[in-house]
Amino acid sequence: MADRGASALSLPDDWPAHPDPILALNRMGSFDWDLDTGLMAMDAQAHEIFDLRPDEYDDDPDTLGKRVPPLEARRLDTYVSRALKEGSENYGAYFRVRRRDGTLRWAHTQGYIRRDENGHPRRIIGIVRDATQELSDTAARRDQAARDDARRQQTNVVELTTAALAHARTVQDVIDVLKDTRGLSHLGATSLVMGRVEAHRIRLIAEGPAGSFVPGTLVTGIDEQYPMSEVVRTLRPRFIESPEDFAESYPLLWPHITDLHITSAAYLPLIVQTRPIGAMGLLYSDRRGFTPEERNILIALGSSIAQSLQRAMFYEQEKDLAEGLQQAMLPRTIPSVRGADVAVRYRSAEIGGSLGRDIGGDWYDLIPLPGGRVGAVIGDVQGHDTHAAAVMGQLRIVLRAYAAEGHTPATVMARASVFLHELDTDRFATCLYAEADLGTGVVQVVRAGHIDPLVRAVDGSCRRVPVDGGLPLGLSAEFGSLEYPVSTLELDPGHTLLLCTDGLVEQPGTDLDDGIQILTGLVATGPDDVRDLADRLIEVAGERGGEDDVALLLLRRRGLDAPRTGGRLQQHVAPGDPEALTQARHMIRAAVRSWGAADRADEIELVADELVTNALMHTEGAAVLTLRVLTGGDRRLRVEVEDTSSALPRRREAGESGVSGRGLLLVDLLADVWGVEARGGGKAVWCEFVVPVRR
To answer: Which of 93, 199, 202, 369 has its CA 20 to 30 A from that of 603?
Structure first.
């Protein structure tokens, strides 16, 4: 007869008198179950596992019923029956044994089935052993693994929360991170509260979920009987283990939060450098108590939150200071200008991770000038700090002063450059100054290292206006180059002049020309109203981001039906300054065309040039050339040249070969009327030209 499976477990011939020593050493008992007779013999070790004396067991398996509870016996029978029916060679099962003293212990059996040549089961031999310690160790390992997994999850939440807090810049950013569903909610918290210490009180700055606010807790005293007050007062965390603990310890608060079904809570002081800056509470509705590991993790989380909150508070304080300083340095109000619509905007840079750096040296200004003129300034001092803002404020003031004194645009820029150089600062500045006569539309522009202006026409088309320029302010004086050429352009009614700093055009990965081209397209497709257009451009700058400030000034000349003043332009011409005389000619030519006197442009330019030349040749000091439009009756264009000499000009005949003496004759011939007026310590020679009214 084949004995299938006999090699799995072999018993000695004199078993059970002399059991297998290896099994005995491992405290394993053995059994031999004859399936034909139903008898099951066991050795002494097996008797011990079942807590049976030899005289208490008669080889009948049913006798084990007093040691194996019925449910366990049925489960064992199921395992054995299944193995026999399915043709298995072995089976194994854990079961419980009730010992003599009534205690239950775990045991394990492993049986090997022997079959005849036809496959019918005839015998089961096997082992049985005490498994109580084994299962206890397994359960302990399983519990430890579960605790380790929970600790890893909580630690992971803390790490993720700490990483997210590293990017929080404002107090609201900190609150948003904590209320994020991927944040503290993974710790199982039902509700979150956070307070900030302000003047010996705690101001609630965050609470959730919606509807959980407790009336009267917006501002609480540190000495009051609230958990956040306690942790701030004692600088120690407070772990509330049960609803009873909560109700007994904080009777003022508990009645208001019973609807949240809170079962435990953890309140943590937010401490920085031994000083409490706030407190945070996590409230739970599905747990009681906290393990030491959980407490340590929450305390570590509180420390991380405290550091982030302190950093955010510093950032907001410095941001408020920076914004206050920036606003103090920029004009408080922009004056209304008759004949023009004006819009100005400023956007500070947002430089990540740099507290107090959201301030720079960009500025704008609008300066009302006599005779219906206005000066528009845009500039940028190097740097993003309070020093740049301070330099900007001083530079803005002196530019305004020089322009208000009546200096020409070139002189205004040159003097500003000298001023910045003499400040003995390491900063330079770019600047563009445009002086516009709103009656005539003539605009004189000087540029110091700044980007060119843009002009938008009535039909929406926009173009860049190339302007000759000089060195940035501060550098020109340092390198001895104070020349700032003046360019003249005409601003027709309805046209808009746009001045901006490079923060509006510079983009990562593109050069300046590409940025200006993009800006030109935005202006062309933008709203007609200058205020709406300014808002749109700043909105685009904000969406794009960037690490540079943006200053913007838009000036739109109103249409012909708007009230207009008589045109007036003025140019100082210094002795030995041929550039100033050239600039004066350009001004005359542009003004005459703008005022509708193009057919007399050559005559007016020739007469004005002659009067200025005479003043420079026959007097000491500078000449001041003034052009203006006189209305009332005939429309006339008046040219005045003022000097500091009281000596009146004389008309004299020039010889056949003379090169002088024809000046006043020329004036008398070309002008409709002319004369001389005393002006204090000097005089003004004037002449007028009748020009048709432009329709």
So the answer is: 369
